[in-house]
Design a protein that fits this description.
Elements lengths: L9 H8 L6 E4 L6 H7 L7 E6 L2 H10 L6 E5 L5 H7 L5 E7 L4 H5 L24 H7 L2 H12 L4 H12 L7 H11 L2 H6 L4 H12 L1 H14 L1 E11 L2 H14 L20 E3 L9 H6 L7 E7 L6
Parallel strand pairs: 1-2, 1-4, 2-3, 4-5
Antiparallel strand pairs: 5-7, 6-7
Length: 313
């Protein structure tokens, strides 16, 4: 299967990052190289693009697709380790960073990866193809911990019932395929919930987030990205669910905050200045034309922040 990931809000990302010739940019989530290719094409001979991805399949494909751009380099790394990568390359500051947090079409649709609840496959979900798998979590975590993961990461109100049924079912034999887990989830929710929407989406999302440590990496990666920007540089982040978007929104707000004195102080004495400014106060969303072309852009939200010119940290 071809590694595909239709770049979401491509034009808005390029415009929001203010990509220009001679600039240095990081695509922290290379995927199928859709965004990376667009960035590289605008850099001219003196610009530079560093594309990162934790998935070895994505690194292979992105390397092939960016081979026409001598100014582009693909490295296998989690974007949460961006600063270490840049240090090794001798790069101090960059002009822009893009993080597209969506799971690629390849990862969702390739049976062997175990991300989809529509395809029978080994229960895997590992983006890096190594370490703890979804089957490990489903078959070894306590009922309480499973319930917490499904509730917090999936925002699933039937988390306790789902976790209890997972624990009960695994006593007879390990839950090691996607469709068996999907059947357990469907049987754990009321019939009305099954009719309204696919009841598996939230639980599969939750387990995927836990397997890959996605929220922890996002928190670390946001700091690494923002601190790597030169004054005037921009960070653009595309999120696909509320947990991600909330984290990005709160972190951006913190960087844009000025005075941190107690509210009862008559005047500011802290001297704290904002580190950044929001390029868009409300998240940018896909327009109707894009939604028609790519249904997976429906939940996408793009937020962009610019590092303050006077901030030299």
């Amino acid at each position: 299967m071809e590694f595909t990931h239709i770049p979401v809000m491509l034009a808005q990302c390029i415009e929001g990052l203010d990509v220009h010739e001679g600039g240095i940019y990081v695509d922290g989530t290379a995927g199928g190289a859709g965004h990376s290719s667009a960035i590289a094409s605008k850099l001219g001979g003196s610009g530079r693009l560093i594309s990162l991805d934790r998935d070895p399949d994505a690194v292979r494909v992105a390397s092939e697709r960016l081979s026409a751009y001598p100014n582009a380099q693909v490295i296998r790394s989690n974007y949460s380790q961006m600063r270490s990568v840049l240090d090794e390359l001798g790069i101090d500051k960059v002009d822009g960073v893009l993080l597209d947090l969506g799971v690629s079409s390849y990862q969702l649709d390739e049976g062997s990866r175990g991300f989809s609840y529509h395809i029978d496959a080994p229960l895997d979900m590992r983006m890096e193809k190594e370490g703890l798998s979804a089957a490990d979590i489903v078959n070894t975590y306590s009922e309480q911990e499973l319930s917490r993961i499904i509730f917090e990461y999936g925002e699933e109100k039937f988390s306790r019932r789902i976790a209890a049924n997972i624990v009960r079912e695994r006593e007879s034999s390990p839950i090691d395929t996607t469709l068996r887990l999907a059947d357990i989830i469907r049987e754990s929710v009321p019939q009305k919930a099954r009719r309204d929407k696919n009841p598996c989406k939230k639980t599969f999302q939750a387990i995927r987030i836990a397997v890959n440590g996605e929220l922890e990496h996002l928190s670390e990666g946001l700091d690494e990205a923002f601190n790597s920007l030169r004054p005037g540089g921009r960070l653009a982040v595309i999120t696909f669910h509320s947990l991600e978007d909330r984290l990005v929104k709160q972190r951006f707000a913190g960087w844009c905050r000025g005075c941190i004195c107690p509210p009862d102080f008559p005047q500011c004495v802290c001297g704290h200045k904002p580190q950044g400014r929001l390029i868009n106060r409300k998240p940018i969303e896909a327009d109707e034309q894009e939604l028609e072309r790519n249904n997976r852009s429906r939940s996408a939200k793009l937020r962009i922040i610019e590092r303050s010119a006077e901030c030299d940290g």
